[in-house]
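For reference, the entry.
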Amino acid sequence: MFDLDRWREIFESIRSNILRTVLSGFTVALGLFIFIVLFGIGTGLKNAFTEGFTRDAANLITIFSGKTSIAYGGLQSDRQVVLKNDDYEQTKSSDPSKLENSTARYSTNMTVKYGKESGSYQISGANPEEKIIENRKLTEGRYLNNMDMTRKQNVAVIGRMVQRDLIKNGSPVGKDLNINGTFFKVVGVFSDDGGDWDERMITVPITTLQQMKKGSDTVSNIFITYDPKLSPDEAIKYGDQLQKELKAKNKVSPDDENGIIVRNNAKNMGDTIQFLFIITLIVGFIGMGTLLAGIIGISNIMVYIVKERTQEIGVRKAIGAKPGSIVGLIMQESVVITVISGFIGVGLGVLSLALIGDSLEKYFIKDPSVGWGLIIAAFISLVISGVIAGFVPAYRASRIKPIEALRSE
């Protein structure tokens, strides 16, 4: 392996047969290049769909009301169902073991002023768990706390775009906003992956906002996140259970699809997981096919190389070279070509993914990349294939008698 003369012979053989070497290496490099780029794009697709699905909590159940479409319980159809605080309390207590986080939300548009600046913004009354459910990230200050809720404090957490629109200079924390004639102290600023729309919202304690609405106990939505350990089927059954109980409480027909509406991410999650699994299978199948094509290409080229060198092998045997020495020389040359070409293919593949970056995000391909574990596994597979591809024809050639090898053309 560390015979200097053998290494000189190998590099002399490579230098003397540039076309043969390039053909051998091109197959290996192309196979790894296509494999890496394909798997990277597949990862980019999965990243895009996963991000789009998880901007809010992935295990989210959203409950809201509408107008009934079926007369039921002595009440007419086309009746507006209004959710209230006790509906939220019933939802929370329905099956606590399956509940992770929850909040009721009351939403309304109000005029907000700060100094000479003003604008209309969505004001959301909620509890502290809204931050987790909405996947909001604090950039300054704090979020709501339980004391704010109990004392019905006039405090507000504003989105990043509200800060940009109204409070242009300095930190907004501690500043007072005039919300529909009532002053609220800003205690925090948040960012949201949902974009500008979600960052143009202001959150205040729901107890405070309901008090501003003359003691109303109305809620616009109920947000529930279920225990992530639940399977999709269990989570769907949990959502159906909540819907059934709220329909019974509000005298909505079990067959009415409009009175109480439940949107359960678990239903979408099953479809998303299945879609991502199919993408993985397709990309994996194509990637494995590419590697297999590379392996077959190496085998074919090594057969050609050994056949071309049959007379050389005959000369070597005639002057006393042992079969093992001949096989080792050809295998070592095969490994050298495979390793060098493999590094080139890996380098080009990784570089291509880095250059692509997020430029294909509009085509739902975000941050395409491949783990080094997978790259190393593919690289080793091709090297081993190169060894096997070189061994089989070399071993056969080493068994030929010198006189027969010298006679071959």
About this structure: The longest strand covers residues 99-114.
